[in-house]
Write a structure and sequence with these properties.
- Homotetramer.
- GO terms for molecular function: magnesium ion binding; xylose isomerase activity.
- The structure is a single chain.
- Helix content is 45%, strand content 11%.
- The protein has 442 residues and is of the alpha/beta class.
- It has 2 domains: 365 residues, Divalent-metal-dependent TIM barrel enzymes (TIM Barrel, Alpha-Beta Barrel); 46 residues, no CATH class.
- The strands form 4 sheets. It has an 8-stranded parallel barrel with strand order 5-6-7-8-10-12-13-14, surrounded by 4 helices. A two-stranded parallel sheet has the order 1-2. It has a two-stranded antiparallel sheet with strand order 3-4.
- The longest helix has 28 residues.
- The chain is globular and about 85 Å long.
- It starts with 17 loop residues before the first strand and ends with a helix.
- The structure holds D-xylulose and cobalt (II) ion.
- The site of cobalt (II) ion has 5 residues, from loops.
């Protein structure tokens, strides 16, 4: 991948990040992520489809509820809206190509500032999309997914598609239409719906059934519009249980699958799972992955991690090798991502203020995923991990157990077998043994 700079260079002194192997002491090098190395029948680059998220990396200014921006970006300097958006895009493509990241993801409002005027917004988005097209062509960087931000503007305080006010819903539709147009124009491979405020704060003022029906109808219309306009990619729903609303309708993977099934959306929609959303729902990320894999719906992931002490979405860069090795075992056994990849929905900390910090964060994230994939592949190939799990269910492989699985036994027959076979011997689940096995391969 060629480095694509604009007129200004924003990350001066940093060259393209190279793979130098695990013994390298260079903090600006990959130690495990080797894009052309084949793992599980694909190059690492193809397997992961790593993506940089525009919002955290080029808009996220470090502000929090207690204080303003700590990241003051040189690409935000111009007072002209299109110049500012182009400068930001120059910075984005410079960073992405220096990192050798093959994909990026955006919300409409990440690319260019929006107003309250639908026509003006459409014009602005179309202008910056033209520029993005040039940048993509020059660099070879591709769009993993696009989305619309239907949660930041004050009009969405009670939701977008689930808003009790129809007029608000129409603005959500206008934004989604334009974001779909942008995604299609840029060859986007997928489109994401994250329902930030599609939920409720109090049931006292909420007709939950009606709101969910509106959401389903809205998703159908978006899908029909995109298909009509040639979009062949996958739609993803990104589950999250809470934050910003108290209770979101896309609570977790199982809830979303039930929703998609109920409203006849299962054919076109898959899941985009995020680590910190899983933990907020009281699950492990591994659990959410397994739910999606078992349904044949693992589309993509948003990579990050939460914090053991905080109960909110801290969106930190991933660095937990055990969590990711266990996750990669599930992803590998499940056949990988369907259409999607690994988007870093993660932000550097408020006090990470050097230009290099964005590089360290992404290098660390890509390396930890690569290391987890390599480890998981070895565990599956040359350890007894699979065998131990399979043997746990051996009593269903033959005889009466197999008859039960095939539906050939009645409840009375099961009762008779209990009498005949007597009290079972305890069988160990071997959890600590398996945990040690994972650590041995790490
Ligand atoms: C918010 C979140 C979003 C989605 C896209 O928690 O994850 O950034 O990924 O709207
Ligand atoms: Co996300």
């Amino acid at each position: 991948m060629n480095i694509i700079k604009g007129q200004k260079e924003f990350f001066k002194g940093i060259e393209q990040i190279q793979f130098e192997g695990r013994d390298s002491k260079n903090p600006l090098a990959f130690r495990y992520y080797n894009p052309k190395q084949i793992v599980a029948g694909k190059t690492m680059e193809e397997y992961f489809k790593f993506a940089c998220s525009y919002w955290h990396s080029f808009n996220g200014d470090g502000s929090d509820p207690f204080g303003g921006r700590t990241h003051v970006f040189p690409w935000d300097a111009s007072s002209d809206v299109l110049t500012r958006a182009k400068d930001k895009m120059d910075a984005a493509f410079e960073f992405i190509t220096k990192m050798n990241i093959p994909y990026y993801c955006f919300h409409d409002v990440d690319l260019i500032d929006y107003t309250d005027d639908v026509l003006e917004n459409e014009k602005r988005l179309a202008a910056i999309v033209d520029y993005a097209k040039e940048k993509q062509q020059a660099s070879g960087v591709k769009l993993l997914w696009g989305t619309a931000n239907l949660f930041s503007h004050r009009r969405y305080m009670n939701g977008a598609a689930t808003n009790p006010d129809f007029q608000v819903l129409t603005h959500g539709a206008a934004q989604v239409k334009a974001a779909l147009d942008a995604t299609i124009a840029l060859g986007g491979e997928n489109y994401v719906f994250w329902g930030g405020r599609e939920g409720y704060m109090s049931l006292l003022n909420t007709n939950m059934k009606r709101e969910q029906e509106h959401l389903a109808k809205f998703l159908h219309l978006a899908k029909d519009y995109a298909r009509k306009n040639g979009f062949k990619g996958t739609f993803f729903i990104e589950p999250k249980p809470c934050e910003p609303t108290k209770h979101q309708y896309d609570y977790d993977a199982a809830t979303v699958l039930g929703f998609l099934r109920q409203y006849d959306l299962l054919e076109d929609f898959k899941l985009n799972l995020e680590v910190n959303h899983a933990t907020l729902a009281g699950h492990t990320f591994q659990h959410e992955l397994q739910v999606a894999v078992d349904a044949g719906k693992l589309g993509s992931i948003d990579a990050n991690r939460g914090d053991y002490q905080n109960g909110w979405d801290t969106d930190q860069f991933p660095n937990d090798i055990n969590e990711l090795t266990e996750s990669m075992l599930i992803i590998l056994e499940g056949g990988g991502f369907q259409g999607g990849g690994v988007n870093f929905d993660a932000k550097i900390r408020r006090n990470s203020t050097d230009p290099q910090d964005l590089f360290y964060a992404h290098i660390g994230g890509m390396d930890i995923f690569a290391r987890a994939l390599l480890t998981a592949e070895r565990i599956l190939e040359d350890s007894e991990y699979r065998k131990i799990r399979a043997e746990r269910y051996a009593s269903f492989d033959q005889g009466s157990g197999a008859s039960f699985e095939s539906g050939a036994l009645t409840l009375e027959q099961l009762r008779d077998l209990a009498v005949e076979l007597g009290e079972p011997q305890p069988v160990s689940g071997k959890q600590e043994y398996l945990e040690n096995l994972i650590n041995r391969y790490i």
